[in-house]
Each structure stands twice: as C-alpha cells, then as structure tokens.
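User: Predict the complex.
Assistant: Input components as received:
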Amino acid sequence: MRNHAFIYSEDMLKYKFSDDHPFNHLRLQLTKSLLEAEDALQPDDFVTPRMASDEEIALVHDQAYIEAVKKAGRGELSPGLANNFGLGTEDTPMFHNMHEAAALLVGGTLSAVDEVMEGRATHALNLGGGLHHGFRGKASGFCIYNDSSIAIEYLRKVYGMRVLYIDTDAHHGDGVQWAFYEDPDVCTLSIHETGRYLFPGTGAVNEKGNGQGFGFSINVPVDAFTEDHSFLEVYEAAIWEVAEFFKPDIILTQNGADAHYYDPLTHLSASIEFFREVPRIAHEVAHDFCDGRWVAVGGGGYDHWRVVPRAWSLLWLEMSDQRHIAEGSLPETWLEAWKDQSPIPLPTFWTDPADLYPPIPRKPEITEKNKKSLDKALFHIRNEKNR
Amino acid sequence: MLIEEIMHKDVAYLTAENTIEQAMNVMHERKIRHVPIVNDKHELIAIVSDRDIRDASPSIFHADEHLEDLQKPLSSIMKTNVVTTGPLDFVEDAASTLYEHDISSLPVTEDDVLVGMITETDILHTLVKLTGAHQPSSQIEIRVPNISGQLADVAALFKANNKNVTSVLVYPCEDPEYKILVFRVQTMDPRRIIETLESSGYEVMWPRMPGMSP
Ligand SMILES: [Zn+2]
C-alpha cells in the first residue's frame, strides 16, 4: 500500500469566477508543477477526483440551493433569486457550469476520504477543496459547496468516524463550524485572524457549540500582524489539547495559505515557515491519535504566485515524508516555466528572506493577547481535565 | 426592533405572601436572578432579586441557623419602585434604561399587568443582530467630518461599488470635529471599496492595506 494520495485533475481549474477574481485555482497547477519539478510526485501518487452526486451534496446543502446553483451555471437564474442564495455577488459571481465545477471539488475531497477509509492510502490530499465558507443554503466568501462539511457528514454516515476538523486558514471556518455546531461527534478547531474587521466576523472564543455539541467548537482568534512564533505557539498547544480531549478517529485539516504576510486579503504576518510547521504537527497528531488517518484540503490563499505553490508543496512533502526536498533554491525549470506569466518576481528559495517585512511594533502585546485567547478557548477543556 | 418580539412571555412570578424560600427555589429551578411580584389582578407591584435575598438573609449560607428567616414573606424584602418597559418600546431604549439604572433585567408591563421579562443578555443578543455582526461580512470604519450629509455620500460609494451593506453604525470620535461610520459589508474582498473611499478623500481607519506598517 502506498502511504499517500494526491487528488488532482486539470478539470478542477474550471472552478473559476473570472480572470481577475482573487480566488484562482491556477494555484493547483502551480503547486503540482513545482512538486513535479522537484520529482516529488510519482504517477502512482495521483488519484483522479470523482464527481460528487446530488445526494452527497445534499448531505449538507438544501435541495433548493443545489437546484439554484445548477440553474445559475446554465444562465437561467434571475439576479433577484440568485441574491437569496448568495450567488451573482461580487464575491461569488455566476459562471458557466458552476455546479459541475463545484461538485468536482467536493468529489475530490470525497475521493480523498475514500482513499484513506478504504485503505489505499494513510494520508490523502485534495488541494482543490477547503471551501469552508459555504453554508447550507447560501454561497459565501468565494465558496459554493462546502466540501469539508460534506466530507465530514459522509465520514459520519458511511464510516461512523469521530472527526476532528482543524482549520488554519486566516479566515474563520464558519461554514463548517455552523454545520456541526450541535454535534458532539464532530469537533471543529479554527485558528484565524480576529473577526473584528476581517471577514466573516465570527470565530470568537465564546463560540463553543450548542446543546449536545457544547464544547466541541473551538475558536482561537489571533490579532492582526501575528507572526510565526506566536501563531505556532497557539496552534501547537490547541491541536494537542483538543486531540487529547476529543480523541478523534480521523483528522481533516483545512490548509488555507492566506495567513502569509504577502496575502492581499488578510493582515497576518506568517512566513513560509508557518506552512512547514502546521502540517508537521498535524502529521504527528494523525499518527498519535488516528493510526495516521489524515485527509487534508486546501482553502484560501490569494498570493497564488509567491506563497501558495510553496506553502501547499510543503504540505504534500510533509504528508509523503519528503521534507528534505524543501531546502535551498526552487528548481530552475519551475521558475523558467512560469516567470513570464507571473506579474511579480517569483521567489527563488523555499524559505522567505529574513527581512520579509519590517519589525512589528506591538509584538509583545500581540503575543500576550493571543495567549489569553488560547487560554479562554481551551478553558472548558482544561477544566474538564482537572476534574 | 420591539420588546414584544424578544421578551420572555412564560414568566415565573410570585405574590407578596410567598416566602423567601419559595423565591429561592423558583430562581434555582428557572435559572433566573429576578422574580416579579404581582397582585391578584396580575399587576406588577414589586420585584425580588437574588441580591435582595442575600442582603436580607445572610444566614442562608449557614444552613442550620435562622431557618425561620426563609419563611418570611417576600413583602418583607421586595423592592416596590420597579423600573419597567412596555411591549411596544424599542430594544435600544430598553438598553439605555438598563444602563442608566445599572440593572440587569426589566419586567414588561401593559396597563400595569405583567406580560413579560427581558434580560441584559436578550438585549445584547438583539443588539449584536442589529449591528449585522452575525452575518458573514467585513467591517470597515471611516472617519468623516462631523457635518451633515456624510453618511449619504459614503453610502452612495458602497452602492456604486455594488457592495451589500448589512449594517451601519455611527459613533462619536474623540475629536468632536469628526465622527466614525462603521459599515458591515458582505464581502471577503474589501480592497476596491477601501481604495474608492480613500481616493474620494475619506480616511479608512482599518484594516490597513498590506505593505503599510501597522
Ligand atoms: Zn481564508
């Protein structure tokens, strides 16, 4: 049995709102191309994503919404109706065959789940997924169908798994959180830039779940301009304590790459090192608690030239035990292949320069504040443990 | 939003003849901190809070002493000057009433008859909804000169940019020459609207655009 699966198809690039929309799945091709240039992807690693069926999408989404998305993709949905479903907005414009494009991303995450649950791989990666803002009956924040919510419900229904969802996108994983807010068999952990200003505005420490699900939604908002050290300190403590508390059967990680300093939509100050460490720790958790069962998806990431290809390659290199590759210069062949298309100079090293950004003036305050958020977020878990 | 839309209608109440012990039990069972007291016409005549009970019977913390205190009628401790609100009052007004009187709950009466109760938490919850903060959105704060017409001018820019505004708040600035407009906007990408606002001469307080030092 091979240890890891890479879900990929060129058709995933058809999830495209417009040429100048910030969400651009060219990221997938750039990442695959970088990994191939490093000889880190073998033919045997590839799994072609399947299309999610309507029944599978309906595990989470309303039938009326699915019909609306189908109509929108055929140009048959009126602007007024579209608005009720969050479609036809600047964030989520309607485009040709949008249902098929969105259903393939969902199918990709389900394919990743099947690889792991049917024993063909220990870890599986669908970089096309991670659309964590999608709601039951409404598109939001560039997301049409919520592949992660669907995959989690699928893991519950088909395999009876207890799922720990870990979201390190710079934005709060609101769609997934609300889908399982009352479910004690699904635990969601989201670490994100505070919603004080940033979309979607939720993800405060006091959002902890409801009813039976109380205590199984964990949110650690971090301050704007948070850097690697503080971010990772909070992440590492949270993921271990939550895993210990929840004892998952499988982990699903959302690996948005928009916490990087270069990201145009957010205000965090992570460097590429952050994206090396996040999967390294998730990988350990998967082996310590879940016999290695780990499904990973992509997510946000809006500097698709300088940040996302490296960040997501690091994720795959971690999953496939090829960390040593990510050192020194990026391969010449990759730089040559893309430099003419990139509007900005491409990075030439796997790591970021030491002077990536000017020193952050309020660093100690930010670090202290993040620690306090962590303490509040984990209060009920630590309380339980000490009883 | 009106009080009657958010008030609790199934209210636990007692009469002046009920005992302190009964009030304690009701508070415990219903997880409430205030019990309204009514007469035989169901008119509100007083209120008893957990604090009134504690102040009147400190011995309740010593289980075996002064048990007779608990059998005293509520008329001995209840507060008769009750601040109330009406079912057709605005939630915002009830919020300022709570604030002015430094209290945490309000009985709702109609012609003196008790028809509901409302707590600080209910009101806070409603205010959060009124600010639009529960809908996925970005927040944009703009400092504008304190002269009339500014809100309309800024709102027109949002409209021209095809951005859906879920709520607007206006609050005073430390500098009385200015005020702050707070918009919640249904978008994950506010870059263009911020650019438009800035190029129209408005000062956007945050989020700062990347590349600028914080
Ligand atoms: Zn994001």
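Chain A has twelve helices and eight strands.
Let me know if you want any component modeled separately.
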